[in-house]
Every structure is written in structure tokens, then in C-alpha cells.
What we know:
Layout: E1 4-9, E2 15-16, H1 18-30, E3 35-38, E4 44-49, H2 50-63, E5 68-69, E6 77-79, H3 95-103, E7 113-116, E8 130-134, E9 141-147, E10 154-156, E11 159-162, H4 166-179, H5 181-184, H6 192-199, E12 206-208, E13 225-229, E14 232-237, E15 244-245, H7 246-258, E16 264-266, E17 272-278, H8 282-291, H9 300-303, E18 305-307, H10 312-328, E19 337-340, E20 351-361, E21 364-375, E22 384-392, H11 394-412, E23 427-428
Parallel strand pairs: 6-7, 7-8, 18-19, 19-20
Antiparallel strand pairs: 1-4, 1-5, 2-16, 3-4, 3-15, 8-9, 9-10, 9-11, 11-12, 13-14, 14-17, 16-17, 20-21, 21-22, 22-23
Helix pairs in contact: 1-2, 1-7, 10-11
Amino acid sequence: MKNINTIKINFVGGIIPPNDLYNILLAAGKSGLLYVRFGLRQQLLLDVEIEELANLTSELETLGVSYEINREDFPNIMSSYPAQEAFIINTWLSEDIYKSIFSSFGFSPRLKINISDANQSFTPLLTGNINWVASPAEQDYWYLFIRFPKTNIIYEWKDVVLTNDLAVMSQHIEKTILGDADAFYDNAAADGDALYALAGTHTFNTKPSGEPLSLPPFNLPYYEGLNRYHDKYWLGIYRRDELFSIRFLKEVCLLCVETRITQLCSTPWKTIIIKGIEEKNRLDWNFLLDKYQINVRHAANELNFQVEDNSLEALKLKHHLVKYLNDDDTRTFGVCIGIKTRRKSEVFCSILVRRKAIIRVGKWGLFYMYDILCAKDFNPNERTDYIFSKDNPKFVLAEQLRRAVLSYYNYTDPQMPAITDGEGQMEIITE
């Protein structure tokens, strides 16, 4: 069995300069890699054999690229920037403001930070530990939601914060949480008011938030294909196996440079988006897709899935469930389905399929059952709220998932007959 190591490279906010990506791909190709992947937090992931690890890391260091190997000490800053213009309209949060915020981070965060427009649901709002959500009513002000690390506890900050203070306040909150880990880290009794009191000892540009922020309803746009916006196009590319050919991506980078596109974006759906394609270059992009046989018309019930990073078991389970939903011709519009195989992992979803081991020996599990959980109001930006169906063997899991999807439509359309699991039980989740 090959010893594979995963190199993680953060691109802040999901913004990837094509020149930088091209050089990384060249280095990866020298080490024998044929494919790369993108992660849930908009990172670039390189899977390299142990024999080539030193060669590749040496190349990355020569390029001045920061990386981690098999670790997540410095999670990427996630943002809704990839959705800007393509899916988000009528907002004060412009490209320049996003980039100004990213450049203000003079440190590498050790906690997960999300920076999101409130007027979208393409990227998750609350999967970080420090979650900034742009005020829909007041320009340059942000709501703050703290999700204490390794918990499902969400605390809404009492103040809104000025744009210029997002980075310094994030750093102060991170230092406070990590400085008192017993109180705020992996603690089911973590107290948001206590954190607020400690952070209040510093002066930031804030004011009382007034009304709590109303989270937007979930509506996942169709995020692949060549699509028109304003007088230009954006191209979204999804890969079923999550693998992007290095040869293909190198040509993407070269075409971006040739057509004066200064960035491409990675998304939380493990896809890429290229924005700013001009009409005169549309055929060039179509030709590139044809050359590499890149399909950009996958079924919606496949695009609706969120799968953990670095989990072949979760990806195989996704393919199993997608096949069943396709064969049954099940409608999944409006639902985001997540698959979770590891404890404490974070998956953005309306309906969660959670695997659990019947027998556990240390970190190894034997014989698995599955629970199906539903988020409050089926909104992925809420925390998972109740169990729809529990202790399912794999051979009935797909049908129970189909019933959970139908329960979503029953929720949105009360005229539909109620659908529950086999026993009709709903249980509040305590984890």
C-alpha cells in the first residue's frame, strides 16, 4: 500500500492567481502527480507519495509557497467571494472590499474564519469558529457569530463591527479562546457572554447590533457550466471524483493569463469558478472543455452533496446514494446533503448522513450503522437539530435518505403528506 501524504495550500478567501497555481502545478508534475484536489475550505490539496515528498516540498519552498502536510493547524480563511457577481446582487460588499479585508490579515489564523455576504447561501456562513457576516442593512458593518471550537455552540456577538477591524478583532478573539482553552475549546459549556466580556477589554470600532441577524433561506444555485452575467460569463467546473487533471488546470491558467483574467476561485463545493470571461473568448473556453472532455452538466442531486475532505469512504458512499436517487428519479432541488464519517468534522448540509462504528478499537471502527440528521428548518446555516432516522444498515440507508428529502418538501409544502422514518421518531441531537 502506498504511503500518501496530503499537502494543503491555503488560498485566502478562495482567490487563486493563475500564475501562482501554474507554478505549483509545474512543481507537482515534476513529482509525478497527475491530479490535484480542492478542499471544503477552498484549499488546494496535493496527494504525494512519501518518496517524492521532499522533492515537492523543496520546490514549494523555492516558490515561497506556505503549506502543511497532513495537518490543519492553519485552516484557510473561507469567503463568499467566489459567489460575488455570479450569484450575489444588490450588495455593498464589493471585490475591492473583500480583497482589502484579506490583505489586512497580517497573521495566519489557527481558528477557522468565515467571511460571508449575508445575501447568499452558496458558501456557508457558520462553519468557521469566527464567522463574519456582512450586515444587509448597514454598509461597512459586520455581524459576528462565534462557534466555539469542537462544539455546536453558536454565540451571536452583541455588537456589529466596522470592516477595518475584522482582522485585528479576529486575532484578539483567537488569542482569547486559545489562551483559555479549558473554558472555550471543546467545551460543551462554553460561555459566549464570558468571551464577550474578555474581548470587551479592548477597544474596537463597534456599535450595538440591535436586532439579531435573520439568516437567509438556503437556495443552492446551479454552480457549474458556462453562464452569462452582465456582459460577461463565468465558468464553473465540478469533478465527480474530486480530481482535477494537472494538464487541464495548467491550460486553464494559461488561458486565464492570455485573456487577462487575473484570478480563478475555489469553492466550498470542491469546484472552481472562473469569472470575467468575455464574449470574444467564450469559444476558447468551450474548446478547452472539449479537449479534455470536461462535462459541465451533472445532475443536481449529485451537485447537492457535501463530503468531508480526505475521505474515500465518504466519497464512495456519496456515489452509492447518488445512484439510488438517480435511479428513483428523486428531486433534490433546495436540499444540501452532507456525509460525515469522522467525529467533530464540519459538514455544511440540510440533511446529514452520519456514519458510526458499532465496534471501536482505538481510532479504528468495525461494522458501521448510519444516522440521518436534519438541520433546523432544513437550513444548512443552522446547526443540526434532530435525528430523522437512526441506526440504519447501509442496505436501507438510501431509501431512508429519500424519505428525509421528501420530508423537506413536506416542510416547505404543508399540503404534502407527512413523511417520517420507519418508526416516526424525531429526536433532539445532543452532540
